[in-house]
C-alpha cells in the first residue's frame, strides 16, 4: 500500500490531499490568509478520516511553486516540520505540472501550456506533453510577459491551462483554453510517481521554486527609485 500526504499552497486556493493506494481524500481552503492556519488542521482531518497516522505515510509531497512567495514558503515549512517529526522524505512537485495533469484528465488533448498569474503584469508558464499517458516537460517553468509565451513549434497547437486572473492576449485567442488551478490531488499523484522513480529527498532539501529574483526592494533601492522620478 502506497500512502502519500500532499499540500498545495502556491495560489489563493490552498488544498490538502491524502492518497491511499487508489483512494483519494481531499480538503480545500480559500483565502491566502488561511493557508498557514488552515493546512495543518486539514491534514489532521484527512489522516483521521482515513484512520491512519502521519508515520504511516510513505512520503510527503508539496507544491514547490512557482507561485505566491508566502504560499510556497508555507508549503516548504510545513512539510519540513512534519517530515522531520515523522522521519519521512518529501517530493517537490512543480505547480504547473500539477495543472497539466489535472487538465489532461478533463480534456482530450496531449499538449498543454500552463499559466499562472505572477502579478506585476507577468505570468509563470511551462509547456507539457503527454506521451502514452506520461507527462513530459517541453518547456521548463519561466517568468515572462504573457504575450512572450512561445509554444513549441514542433508540436500541435497547445491547450492553454489558465489559473485565476489570466486572460490570453489576442495572438493566442484562437487556442482552446481551460481554467485550472494547482491542486493537492494532482500533487499527491505526482508525488507517488516521484517516490517510485526515486525523486524523494530529505526534509532539509525541501526548497521553493523561485522564478522572480527580487521579491522586494531594499530601503536604499526604494529611495533611489523615488529620486529618479
TrEMBL record:
- Keywords linked to the UniProt accession: Acyltransferase, Transferase
What's the source species' lineage?
Answer: Bacteria, Pseudomonadati, Pseudomonadota, Betaproteobacteria, Burkholderiales
Q: Which residues form the Gcp-like domain?
A: 33-150
Domain of life per record: Bacteria
Record's keyword annotation contains Ribonucleoprotein: no
Annotated GO molecular function terms are:
tRNA N(6)-L-threonylcarbamoyladenine synthase activity
Annotated EC: 2.3.1.234
Q: Which NCBIfam families does the protein's record reference?
A: T6A_YeaZ
Listed name of the protein: tRNA (Adenosine(37)-N6)-threonylcarbamoyltransferase complex dimerization subunit type 1 TsaB
Keyword Transferase recorded: yes
Q: Which PANTHER family match?
A: TRNA N6-ADENOSINE THREONYLCARBAMOYLTRANSFERASE, TRNA THREONYLCARBAMOYLADENOSINE BIOSYNTHESIS PROTEIN TSAB
